[in-house]
Amino acid sequence: MRKWILLLCLFSPAALAQVEVEGPWSRATAPGARVAAGYMVLRNKSGAPDRLLGASSPAARKVETHVTVRDGDIMRMREVKGYEIPAGGTFELKPGGPHLMFVDVRQPFKEGDVIPVTLRFESVGEKKVEFRVGRGAGPAPAHKH
Questions:
Q1: How many CB atoms lie within 10 A of CB 79?
Q2: Rounded to an integer, what distance in angstroms lies between the CA atom of residue 120 and that of residue 77?
Q3: Residues 48-87 pLDDT 10s
Q4: Are 119 and 129 in contact (CB under 8 A)?
Q5: C-alpha span between 143 and 15 (Å, rounded)
Q6: Domain annotation for the chain: domains and CATH numbers
Q7: DSSP 63-112
Q8: Counting beta carbons within 10 angstroms of the beta carbon of residue 66, is it exposed (0 to 12), middle (13 to 18) or buried (19 or more)?
């Protein structure tokens, strides 16, 4: 009986779920900035969808999941309740699109810094990652928050 329970645990959907985090990064912030954004690619290697529910970091009071939406001629950011990661697929957090928002950063993000972040997934559970702070891939898009 114990062998069956162990096998069921090993082959449960949570055990089979596998999300890889690729290239987590953030841009350096200006002195006095209260927010920063984080980007990465989430790659789901399992046959079942998963969901990024949220994140936390000692570098900020809270970390929110955001999307960028067009409101007439203005781009605005909106908090959402997470991101779906399709089975066998990817979900990209990128400038001008979905991203993590570090709210009330404790100190400016400087180029070369490493920001510890704990990601919370529906199936996989928690994953600890490090966001590298750099110049990023081009200028920050203009947003109205």
A1: 10
A2: 21
A3: 999 999 999 999 999 999 998 888 888 888 889 999 999 9
A4: yes
A5: 39
A6: 2-134 (2.60.40.1890)
A7: EEEEEEEEETTEEEEEEES-EEE-TT-EEEE-TTSSEEEEEEESS---TT
A8: buried
The pLDDT of residue 71: 82
pLDDT of res. 125:
95
Secondary structure (H, E, C), 12-42: CHHHHCCEEEEEEEEECCCCCCCEEEEEEEE
Task: Return the residue matching tokens 């949220």.
Answer: 54
Give the residues across from 133 on adjacent strands.
26
Residues of the chain with pLDDT under 70: 1-17, 136-145
- Looking at residue 98, its pLDDT comes to 97
Q: Are 93 and 39 in contact (CB under 8 A)?
A: yes
At 15 the pLDDT is 47
Neighbours of 96 (CB within 10 A): 12
